[in-house]
Every structure is written in structure tokens, then in C-alpha cells.
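As a representative case, the lines below give one protein's residues and C-alpha cells.
***
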Amino acid sequence: MTASKIVLNFPKDKIDKPVVYRLIKDFDLSFNIMKASITPDQEGHMVLELSGEAGNVDKGIKYLKEQGISVEPLSKDIRVNWDKCSQCTACVSICPTGALHIKDRATMEVAFDSEKCIACELCIKPCPPRAIEVHF
């Protein structure tokens, strides 16, 4: 069993199609919708955690791409600008999954683990220098 966090970008002609449903029926996958923004006659964006047998996950992602849906790993869309980061740790206390954490207690250096991130965006507002961005 494997899980993969991905970002789907739907063109406007695909948002009313049951493509995500096909992942269950055709590829025996399950998914958790972590975030979605879908508006009729516009593009749609969805963050999913896709779970199933490794081969089926790969086949499901291939199917989505064949349907004209852009598929990217979630980690590509989470950006921390370390040059802007002041290491204030405000983001650490608000992060519900521990994706943002203190790497070294001696230096109080902040680190980011994209595998734990669920793109909840709670870290964006408390960041004084606006060093954290989420792009979908």
C-alpha cells in the first residue's frame, strides 16, 4: 500500500466529468480530498492524498493525465523562501502536522518536511516576512 499527495488542475471542460470517481472504480484507489476549489465554467484545483497498490496509483495518475488533467506532487507547490525566513518559529506552533518544525533546538532553526504537509495554509498568516507560499 502506498500513498501520494498530489495537486490536480482541471481545465474548465473537465470539471463536470467523474474523473476522480474513476480512480475508485477502475483502479481500486481511495483518496482523501485535502483541499478543493472547483467553480463551473472555470478551472478547478484539488489536493488529494491518493492511496492504493503502487502500480494502481501509477496507473490512476496516468489515467488522469490522459484525461487532460495536470498532476503534480504536492511538494512542488509548497514553497518556503529561506532567504526571507527570519527563523521566528511562528509557523511551527500553528502547523497541525509538524511539517514545519524546529530542526535543531540549539540553533532554533526551522525545517520543512513536505511529506507531512497537508497544505492547510495555517502557516501563511503568522509568518511576518511572508516566507511561506502555497501555489495550486
The mean pLDDT is 89. The chain is about 20% helix and 35% strand. Residues 81-134 form a domain with the Alpha-Beta Plaits fold (CATH 3.30.70.20). The first helix runs from residue 19 to 27.
